Amino acid sequence: MRIARALLIWTGLVLALVLPLTFAATSEYLAWRDPVYIASGLAGVVALCLLLVQPLLALGWLPGLHLVLGRRVHRAVGVFLIAAVVVHVAGLWITSPPDIIDALLLRSPTPFSVWGVAAMWALFAAALVSLLRRRLSPRSWSVGHTSLVSIVVLGGAVHAMLIEGTMNTTSKVVLCGLAMTATMAAVASSWLRARRRAPGKE
Predict the structure, then answer these.
(1) Is 85 part of any domain?
(2) Residue 84 in domain
(3) I need a labelling partner for 48 at 20 to 30 A (CA). Which of 6, 16, 163, 168 fits?
(4) Which residues make Cβ contacts (< 8 Å) with residue 157, sequence separation at least 6?
């Protein structure tokens, strides 16, 4: 029963990650695009996929990965997530500098740009908080990190949903929904554990 459950979880996760990437990589929207634009777009899809993986790793919810190992992988995946976002933005900068400048200055007429930029800066802030973890109290670390990553996931999901591009709509909805659900569950679990450690405190 345990093996079957683990197999089901891993199969579901692989499908949730591979299908959006496959649809994006084979999209007709890429037919006349240059390699830099294609790499940039796929990097964005990879980043969105990693948003689903991160909360599952952080709390050891993936079968076969105990909590300590899961958190180590979580940190490594966080580096890849930042790299994917950097490639995504850098590629768009190369293909259309004015659009990226407008987005970064929050003057872009497209709403998805604002959500994407908010998610990007929240991601960088979450990474900085992680680097400063030893200098922060456990409560400050927990509140700061969970708040920032919640913004990352929400901003990233809305950013993706507002774009009509290479991602298949159904797979995109499922991926964004799963990422948001996993993040909310992880935040709730973290909050409940903090409550158990400090009974009677608000």
Answers:
(1) yes
(2) yes
(3) 6
(4) 48, 51, 176, 179, 180
**Looking at the domain assignment, is residue 33 inside a domain?**
yes
CA angle, corner 31, sides to 28 and 33, nearest 5?
120
Nearest by Cα to 50 from 24, 79, 70:
79
> With 0-12 CB in 10 A as exposed, 13-18 as middle and 19+ as buried, what is 8?
exposed
Say if residue 85 is exposed, middle or buried (CB neighbours under 10 Å; 0-12, 13-18, 19+): buried
173 in a domain, yes or no? yes
The CA distance from 58 to 56, in Å, is 6
Find the angle CA(83)-CA(64)-CA(13) to the nearest 5 degrees. Answer: 55
- pLDDT tens across the length of the chain (202 residues): 788 889 999 999 999 999 999 999 999 988 888 999 999 999 999 999 999 999 999 888 899 888 889 889 999 999 999 999 999 999 999 999 999 999 999 888 889 999 999 999 999 999 999 999 999 998 898 899 999 999 999 999 999 999 988 898 999 999 999 999 999 999 998 777 767 766 554 4
**Domain range enclosing 44:** 2-197
pTM: 0.91
Closest CA to 59 of 178, 158, 154, 193: 193
